[in-house]
Every structure is written in structure tokens, then in C-alpha cells.
Input
Amino acid sequence: MIRRQFITLLGGAAVAWPLVARAQQSERMRRIGMFAGLSETDPELQARKGAFLQALQQLGWTDGRNAHIDYRLDGGDTSRDAAELVALAPDVIVATGSPSVSALQKTTRTVPIVFVGVVDPVGAGFVASLARPAGNVTGFTWFEYGVSGKWLELLKEMAPRVRRAAVLRDPSSPGGIGQFAAIQGIAPSLGLELRPVGVLDAGELERAVTAFAREPNGGLIVTTSGWTIAHRHLIIALAARHRLPTVYPARYFVTDGGLLSYGPDTIEPYRRAASYVDRVLKGEQPADLPVQASTKFELAINLKTAKALGLDVPPTLLARADEVIE
Output
């Protein structure tokens, strides 16, 4: 009796093992592209990747187990990088910033794209509307243009003597144009003269800032773009060299030595992007996933930089700060 039970159990196991093996073999490895546009050694990139991978794992996707992630990170030739990434036949691509999304959209209209860090996806032509993207692209925006006006208010509050502000922007993108327009709209009420400065060439930027700094009572506003983020150390160094009070669009500029920043949490959207990647991998279409805006904004102040510029930070500004760097 015992022998017959053992043989029966053994036979059942022999049937079960092939079923398990076939189930494991049928779990297809999913391919995810990540197009970030920052250097591999950039701490900001490492924080973004870490948040994305952690959220992805919590949703059941692990790199090397049931997902394979292909990276294009250095911000070099975006057209070439986009073509190479699409050629790998990914199931979905996570892209940072307008240049990356633009290059990808020119390469494919079928591979799902989830973006992070695009200022104006409708104006850029990436989606038909925020509520109904209508194509292969959706994602998470940084902020509304109205935030740009806040930068000018903060500059005036931090450095009341400022009468002129150079605005570092990307004139070739809708985001750069829109941010400058919002700043322009509030400048007269603050009694500030604006000067737009293009940011697509390091040498030209250095010459423009040097010329601007020759006159007194000047300050800088740095708008958000892929170029200003990638070249933030140059911009911070120019501001320090010419003793120009400067407001930046994100906290990591301040942790790198900048004076003051106001902008969205740049890490949280990557956790949220993982949820969209998960939904796409499970069969949903980008056209049915609405574009979402940032929900958390941060004010950061670097007291060491303020002291170097001879600025006394107003107590009201300190009280509102989310992060104060000593």
C-alpha cells in the first residue's frame, strides 16, 4: 500500500515538474529602455535610477530576472542614441526631457514612451492633450509656467538690490520660450530689467554672463532645460565668480553650491513613472494614461553661498525653506 502511494506521488510530481518548467519558460523577459541624458557619474542620475528601479521592483519587475533595462545616459548624440535604443525593440522607454522625447518620437510612433521632466508636452507636440495623450507618449511634467515667475520673486526677496536679471534659457524649445514669457510677465511689477541669454553653447554663455556682470545690481535666473542641468557646475561657477545672486529650478543645483532654488521634487516622478511602465507592460496603452503634473515643490537655500555673496537671508525666506544647507 505504501509502495503504491509512493509511486502515485512520484508520478504526480513527474507531471507537475514539466508544467512548472513550461510556466517558467513562458515568462517572457520584458525589455525597458531608459533615456536619461545625464552622465553615469552624476549623483542626480543615480538618485533617479535608484528610485525608478526600487519602485519597479515593488511592482514585481526586477532587472535581470523578468526585465532587462537598456540605458542611454550620457546626453551625447540624442538622435543616434534614440535610434539605437529603438533598434533594441524595447517594450517601453522611459525618457527624460524634451530633447530625448523629441528624438524618440522622430524614430518611432509605436514603441510606448513614458517621459519625465518635460515642461510643456502639449506645446512640444508630444501629446494631443494632458487628459488624452492620443499617441504612443505619456508621462509626468515638471511644472506649470507660473512657477517661473516665482523665481523672479525669490531673487528679489533674497537680494533686494537687484535691478537687472539675466535669464538663462533654451530659446529653441517651447519650454524655454514659455518659461521666459512667464518671467517677463512679472518683471515690471518687481521693477526688474530682463536680459535673455541662450544656453546652448558653453563659450557663448560664459561671454554673455561676463558681459552682464560688468554692470552693478545684477542677478541670474536659470530656467530648466537639459542643457542647464547637464552644465550646472559651469553655471554655478560663473555665478560665484561674478558674485551674482542666482535662483535655480531644482534642489540639486543648491546642493552643488548654488544659492537658492524652487522647483519640483525631481526624484518622485521616477517612482510614479515606474507605475506607468508596469501598466504598459501589462497591456495598457500610453494614449489611455493621462499626463500627470508634479505634486511636490521644494525651496532650498545654501547659507554658505549666501554668506560668500554678502547676503543676509531674510528670516521669512528661511522659515519657508524645505532644505537649508549650512
